Amino acid sequence: MSNAFIDQITHRRTIYALGDKVSHTPEQLTALIQEAVRQSPSAFNSQSSRVVILFGEHHHKLWDIVKAELKKLVPAEAYAQSENKVNGCFRAGFATVLFFEDQDVVKDLQAKFASYADNFPIWSEHSTGIAQFAVWTALAQEQLGASLQHYNPIIDEAVRQAWNLPESWRLRAQMPFGSIEQPAGEKPFMDDAARFRVFK
Ligand SMILES: Cc1cc2nc3c(=O)[nH]c(=O)nc-3n(C[C@H](O)[C@H](O)[C@H](O)COP(=O)(O)O)c2cc1C
């Protein structure tokens, strides 16, 4: 059975060899990313996801922040390798999407629905994952490559200050994207029999 959605999610891969040869305008990409996030479900339709899209100098600034924070933590002899990775795989791209979850939304839900209080932080994490996947897949449909990075929490404070973001926005992931300079290799899959159980 052919299914367009399965084709689309199969097309989404982690792309590390990114370039900035992108013909879409920032406006087109912003509309695409916004719609992917808007259409992503969230617990109680709480819409806890917050997104910052960085183009041009802002995109470069993010990855310069990452390098500056890594330099404080990574042993001097290993830093060159980290720097090359950040420059070659992420900064070389066209733009970056930052995914946050608004902790004020989570706290409000916990106060309003006390019996679910323990679940709201978990569901918030689910929600950002769903939004990330939607954006990643939408970008792939536009023949754009992306990867998913987690330099949080080491960059959180610098990011908050650089773009004057609310304290309640908790950074969950960074998604650099751009032109695909080298496609992903083949992906191994575990044995379906060990993963799925079907009763009929
Ligand atoms: C929740 C989650 C966290 C991930 N974190 C990272 C990460 O920090 N750095 C990275 O390079 N890739 C990260 N990835 C990408 C995975 O390594 C990648 O999706 C996986 O190997 C499958 O490859 P594919 O994306 O090409 O299908 C993450 C993926 C998921 C779903």
Automatic annotation (TrEMBL):
- Segments forming domain Nitroreductase: 9-178
Ranges in coiled-coil conformation: none
* Keyword Oxidoreductase appears in the UniProt entry: yes
- Keywords of this entry: Cytoplasm, Oxidoreductase
> CDD domains per the record?
Frm2-like
Q: List the GO molecular function terms.
A: oxidoreductase activity
The record's SUPFAM superfamilies line, in alphabetical order, gives:
FMN-dependent nitroreductase-like
Per the record, its GO cellular-component terms are: cytoplasm
What's a single GO BP term from this record? cellular response to oxidative stress
Which cellular compartments is it found in? Cytoplasm
Pfam short name (any one): Nitroreductase
Q: What is its main location?
A: cytoplasm
User: What Gene3D superfamilies does the annotation carry?
Assistant: NADH Oxidase
The answer to whether the entry has keyword Oxidoreductase is yes
UniProt protein name: Nitroreductase family protein
UniProt source species: Aeromonas simiae
